[in-house]
């Protein structure tokens, strides 16, 4: 009797051991508690275009821990896969558990923010406006696909000429205007604040100054708003920004305009600064911060502008996109510069077909 | 007539402005160097960043591009020059400079070319930052860390090779993918030579202290049904794969360098698999550098964790050491 119980016990034990050895390491290690379909991402960012700018945006978003999922899209499949793998290999050091990529836009589904960097870039000496038609054709393919998979997203357009292409994106997407933003003069203002702060020996974040209007050659530095700790520089130096200014502060704005050309001449392209500035915008949008940024928004009806154009104005950014626009007090000269930019942009836009 | 600046700001401090407290220099502004630079900047590790290279235009362009992002960063000073005087008083110097293998070029020839480059770089670094910690990234990293050590005259605790820090990060990423767990909760150490003959220490692979090899005694062998050995193979192949796809690797190595810099600059006493002098350990008799788990702090690499290795694993380390010494003894330093 005891012997047969003993044999039964041995048999059961051997069966148990056999079953245990069949289970994988994963099954032995982990007991799942919650089952059911995987949760969709809550803070997904997509970057379209894995060139130098796109990857700088991607790395900045990752290192700032802004997203729980990052998707990359491009047409060059090898490069796309390589960039994705390179980022994934750094996942030990990051807090973004899912990094995906694909030529097919289905990988971008459920994005909260989509950064569009795709397109051809400025050649040495080429103005941003020359790029227009080349990039419009690319956008006709990209934008509808983005919206198809992320109908509730906010689009940040970076590709140049950014103001025209943000307009194009808005038209092609069918999204309400507050959800289509151009990176605009966010970078120009950052450069301006850096250069002005250098002259004064302070950190750029302690120097307040806004560059508005067209991103590029005809951007408008609002000298009346420049201040440190609320002290207006223009009150200290009424000639600031004019030709008669002995200290030639105007030169600083000129350096901002020339910056991109200079960096392109030296290293072939710009990427780090624009990447950091896009991450800054992404943070305000993702975290619903209501911070004010100079970004490109639809300005018809403001400052006497009657055309549907995008220009940079101080915008309050939150999780809905552009929540509101700050009405800056501009001089009549500054207003006329904005209007002139608007006219020039409309002149280009009106000839674009099939939008 | 007071200038705008004078009207705005009154200088009140009687002290000389203090120098940088945790300056980082990156030598070489190629893809790896710049990835390391942006990672260090975005992790707010330093109050001054210096860049050095021989290509002056590219160097200036890269520095300007980073400076234009200053508004978004907490690194007040970003400088760059061909002249090493800009690197003065660095706490950590990251060396990414060097030649890449030409087609058909022998490894020994590549090493000698890079030795010649290092003969110029290393003494210049030491001249301006005699108390720095050198972090060598250029490949073949184990040999070049030895070269940097010899050329610098620094004690062995101040010369560190990035070694298998990246290999281990890749291993933990792949392990994490297999288990559905974040890499930081997956523990696994890849040691030895950075590259093809790195050694995955299967006995140490664990999650929450649970040894995976304890659950699966075949792990790492050819008879393992779950083929964990291929995880290590993928680690070895991944660099070649990424290079084939995008031309080079940058982001992962950049982030791993920033991870090491953080431990050093913040005196964390964290343990990392990095390349150090292993003569006298694990049966190695030659003066070679291989990766083992090391404690990193502000005086550099202060301690080595002695791993309990299987005889086969130690054999692999000894074999790597012999191969490395075979190359090193032919070098003219």
Automatic annotation (TrEMBL), chain A:
Record domain Lactate/malate dehydrogenase N-terminal: where: 44-182
Main localization, broad class: cytoplasm
Residues annotated as signal peptide: 1-21
GO CC field: cytoplasm
Keywords noted in UniProt: Cytoplasm, NAD, Oxidoreductase, Signal
Positions annotated as active site in the UniProt record: 215 (proton acceptor)
Pathway it works in: Fermentation; pyruvate fermentation to lactate; (S)-lactate from pyruvate: step 1/1
Record-given protein name: L-lactate dehydrogenase
Organism name: Cyprinus carpio
Lineage: Eukaryota, Metazoa, Chordata, Craniata, Vertebrata
UniProtKB/TrEMBL annotation, chain B:
Subcellular location: Cytoplasm
Cited CDD domains: LDH_1
Chief place where the protein resides: cytoplasm
Keyword tRNA processing (UniProt): no
Active site annotation, chain numbering: 194
Pfam families, per database record: Ldh_1_C (PF02866), Ldh_1_N (PF00056)
Enzyme class: oxidoreductase
Keywords: Cytoplasm, NAD, Oxidoreductase
GO cellular component: cytoplasm
Keyword hit for Cytoplasm: yes
Enzyme Commission code: 1.1.1.27
Subunit structure: Homotetramer.
Name of protein: L-lactate dehydrogenase
Name of the gene: LOC109062323
């Amino acid at each position: 009797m005891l012997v047969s119980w003993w044999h039964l016990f041995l048999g059961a034990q051997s069966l148990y051991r056999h079953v245990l050895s069949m289970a994988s390491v994963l099954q032995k290690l982990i007991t799942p508690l919650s089952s059911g379909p995987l949760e969709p991402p809550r803070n997904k960012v997509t970057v379209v275009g894995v060139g130098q700018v796109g990857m700088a945006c991607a790395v900045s978003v990752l290192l700032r821990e802004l997203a729980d999922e990052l998707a990359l899209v491009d047409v060059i499949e090898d490069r796309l896969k390589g960039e994705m793998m390179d980022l994934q290999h750094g996942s030990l050091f990051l807090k973004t558990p899912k990094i995906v990529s694909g030529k097919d836009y289905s990988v971008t589904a459920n994005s909260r923010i989509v950064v569009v960097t795709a397109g051809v870039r400025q050649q040495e000496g080429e103005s941003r406006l020359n790029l227009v038609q080349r990039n419009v054709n690319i956008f006709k393919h990209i934008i509808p696909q983005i919206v198809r998979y992320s109908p509730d997203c906010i689009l940040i357009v970076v590709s140049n000429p950014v103001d025209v292409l943000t307009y194009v994106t808005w038209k092609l997407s069918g999204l309400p205007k507050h959800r289509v933003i151009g990176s605009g003069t966010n970078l120009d203002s950052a450069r301006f604040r850096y250069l002005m702060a250098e002259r004064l020996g302070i950190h750029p974040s302690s120097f307040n100054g806004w560059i508005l209007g067209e991103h590029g050659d005809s951007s408008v530095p609002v000298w009346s708003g420049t201040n440190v700790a609320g002290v207006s520089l223009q009150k200290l130096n009424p000639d600031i920004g004019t030709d008669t200014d002995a200290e030639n502060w105007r030169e600083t704005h000129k350096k901002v305009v020339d910056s991109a050309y200079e960096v392109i001449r030296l290293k072939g392209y710009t990427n780090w600064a624009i990447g950091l500035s896009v991450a800054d915008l992404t943070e305000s949008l993702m975290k619903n911060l209501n911070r004010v940024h100079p970004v490109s928004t639809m300005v018809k009806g403001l400052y006497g502008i009657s055309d549907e154009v995008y220009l940079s104005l101080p915008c309050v950014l939150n999780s809905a996109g552009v929540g509101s626009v700050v009405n800056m007090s501009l001089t009549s000269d500054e207003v006329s510069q904005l209007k002139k930019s608007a006219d020039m942009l409309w002149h280009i836009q009106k000839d674009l077909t099939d939008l | 007539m007071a200038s705008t600046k004078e009207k705005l700001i009154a200088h009140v401090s009687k002290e000389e402005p203090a120098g940088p407290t945790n300056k980082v220099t990156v030598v070489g502004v190629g893809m790896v160097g710049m990835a390391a630079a942006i990672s260090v900047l975005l992790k707010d590790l330093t109050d001054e960043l210096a860049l050095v290279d021989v290509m002056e235009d590219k160097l200036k362009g890269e520095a300007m591009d980073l400076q234009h992002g200053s508004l978004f960063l907490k690194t007040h000073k970003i400088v760059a020059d061909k002249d090493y005087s800009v690197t003065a008083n660095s706490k950590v110097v990251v060396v990414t400079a060097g030649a890449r293998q030409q087609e058909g070029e022998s490894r020994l020839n590549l090493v000698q070319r890079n030795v010649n480059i290092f003969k110029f770089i290393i003494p210049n670094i030491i001249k301006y930052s005699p108390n720095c910690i050198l972090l060598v990234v250029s490949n073949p990293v184990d040999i070049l860390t030895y070269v940097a050590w010899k050329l610098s005259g620094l004690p062995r605790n101040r010369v560190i090779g990035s070694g298998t820090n990246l290999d281990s990060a890749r291993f933990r990423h792949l392990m994490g993918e297999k288990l559905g767990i974040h890499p930081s909760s997956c523990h696994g150490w890849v040691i030895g030579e950075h590259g093809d003959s790195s050694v995955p220490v299967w006995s140490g692979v664990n999650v929450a202290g649970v040894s995976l090899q304890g659950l699966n005694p075949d792990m790492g062998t050819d008879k393992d049904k779950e083929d964990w050995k291929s995880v290590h193979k993928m680690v070895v192949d991944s660099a070649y794969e990424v290079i084939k796809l995008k031309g080079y690797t940058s982001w992962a190595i950049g982030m791993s360098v920033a991870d090491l810099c953080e431990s050093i600059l913040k005196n964390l006493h964290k343990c990392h698999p990095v390349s150090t002098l292993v003569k006298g350990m694990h049966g190695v008799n030659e003066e070679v550098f291989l990766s083992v788990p090391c404690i990193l702090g502000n005086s550099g690499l202060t301690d080595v964790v002695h791993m309990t290795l299987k005889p086969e694993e130690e054999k692999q380390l000894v074999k790597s050491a012999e191969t490395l010494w075979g190359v090193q003894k032919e070098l003219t330093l």
